[in-house]
Amino acid sequence: MTKIITLNEKYINKAIDLANNSTMSQKHGSILFSGGKILGCGFNSNSRTCACDRILPAMHAEIDCILNSPLKKYLLHYSKCKEKCKIQPTGC
Which of 4, 9, 50, 92 has the most CB atoms around its CB within 10 Å? Predict the structure, then answer.
């Protein structure tokens, strides 16, 4: 019998695969999608990130995901502190 994989399962499996790339003890993957198309993806890491003009010690999966998408320009403080933080998204 052939198993039919739904779109939700496809995205969940992709997020799990991404989470496995993390070197953190708590591994998280994140997928941003719309209309059946993946816009961005990411996973948590030890990389520094910025939020509200503060430097944080780790990159959250959802922030990495947004930084790897066309929506990064809408992050309020991204453009103000990306040079100071040297933010490097991990990629899909």
Answer: 50
